[in-house]
Amino acid sequence: MSNTTEHLKKSAFEILKQNDRGEYSVPTRGLYPVQFNWDSAFAALGYLWSNQNRAWRELELLTEAQWPDGMIPHIIFRGEHEGYFPGPAVWRIPSTPPTSGITQPPFLATALRHLVENCDTLETPRVVAVLKRIHRWHCWFMENRLDDNSGAIRVVHPWESGRDNLVDWNQGMLRIPLTDLEEYQRRDLEHVKAAQRPGKMEYDRYLSIIKFCADLQWDQKALGKVSPFLMVDPGITAILLRANRDLKYLLEIHQLIKESEQISGFIGTLEKGWRNLWNPKIKAITAYDPIEQKWVDGISSASFLGPYAGVHDAFMTTATLEHFDRIRNQVKYLMPSYDPEHPSFEADRYWRGPVWLMINRLIGKGFAEIGETERAEIMRQDSLALVQQSGFCEYYNPLNGVGLGGKSFTWTAAVFLDWVLAL
Ligand code: 9WN
């Protein structure tokens, strides 16, 4: 390992330590001083390299925030969280600790399988308890977020997709009636330049959806049908599909056969759902608008998650690899969050173009699993080059590699240790 790589490895460990709050991590200091669902699941992969018990506790604590209905929320407001907006007073959820009222991409089961396979000892009863909670969460997805027509997963807020400011959500965002919002102060802009964050138009709508849902007392079943924002998301569909495969494997090891059979059914539905997101016009998997019943017209980084999700029909893979090679010729670093040839591409703005390392990991792993080793290696090398050039940022400009958003970022450091250094 070269000196620079050795030095970066040390920095990655330091970042994980800085953002460690004892039994959970924050994504970064300042900008995000709270526990986030999929950030924590990725963080565990990083802690695994220094302290197995700490890695395990990150996942276990996340599942302890489960709602009575089975949802594991997107934010858990633990510790000092004054600096984050919108806080508990906006979400209006009477739980301890307070949480947000939506969920996030379910990477948890996949992270759990990784820990089970790599930890020396884990106490079986505790693993089984966590497995049962995750199983309930996956059932919750199928009951409350399944788009019956396609068999794929809907999101009720752009934040639920984890890819908040995606061009794909424009159609859904335009439908949102603006409610009378009290004046509010954005805290994110105290840490990151406005040009790298969503605009006021988006924030007003993010808050209007929350108000609508809180007025409905977060009745999740109803929200899955009547939220003012509803879009079918290939990202969360692929991540849930893969997570179901990993969950099924773990359920079988622990002889939870009834649950495992139920998950097989979910896998079948979601496979169909993924195939239904095939957009014949642009020959790619894309997001879908369930209200206007049409596909969006752009390719996002989630369009490359078929192999990761375990659905890679030959015609889909061929077209996907063509898009991969075309996009590679447009940027210096893969994978931009949005197609650089799309008119709405923005190289610096949050989810409208920049590269996220944890998405690179999902794409890279999937490609490696289907034998696309060269392209998998490109994903890893580009990720390494980004960290070498700009450190452990939240996201990166795909054209010049400049680091953007929050700095000293947990999941970037975790994914660096877990995948960039050890494919
Ligand atoms: C809102 C923490 C989170 C990630 C999301 C990312 C961003 C939050 C924000 O940061 O979202 O959920 O305030 O911008 O989009 O994926 O989990 O890293």
Note down, in words, how this protein is organized:
The structure is a single chain. The longest helix is centred in the first third of the chain and has 21 residues, at 124-144. The protein is 49% helix and 6% strand. It is built from 16 helices and 11 strands. The mean pLDDT is 96. By secondary structure, the chain is mainly α. Helix 1 packs across helix 16. The strands form 5 sheets. Strands 3-4-5 form a 3-stranded antiparallel beta sheet. The protein has a two-stranded antiparallel sheet with strand order 1-2. A two-stranded antiparallel sheet has the order 6-7. The protein binds (2R)-2-(alpha-D-glucopyranosyloxy)-3-hydroxypropanoic acid. (2R)-2-(alpha-D-glucopyranosyloxy)-3-hydroxypropanoic acid binds at residues 27, 32, 36, 38-39, 159, 162, 164, 188.
What ranges have pLDDT less than 50 throughout 5 or more consecutive residues? none
Decide which structural class fits the backbone.
mainly alpha
The main sheet orders its strands as: 3-4-5
Shape: globular
- Run of helices and strands: HEHHEHHHEEHHHEHHEEEEHHHHEEH
Bound molecules: (2R)-2-(alpha-D-glucopyranosyloxy)-3-hydroxypropanoic acid
Largest sheet: 3 strands, antiparallel
Measured between the Cα atoms of the first and last residue, the distance is: 14 Å
The average pLDDT score comes to 96
Strand tally, please?
11
Determine the number of helices (DSSP H or I, runs of at least 4 residues). Answer: 16
Radius of gyration: 20 Å
Proportion of residues in β-strands: 5-15%
Helix share, percent: 40-55%
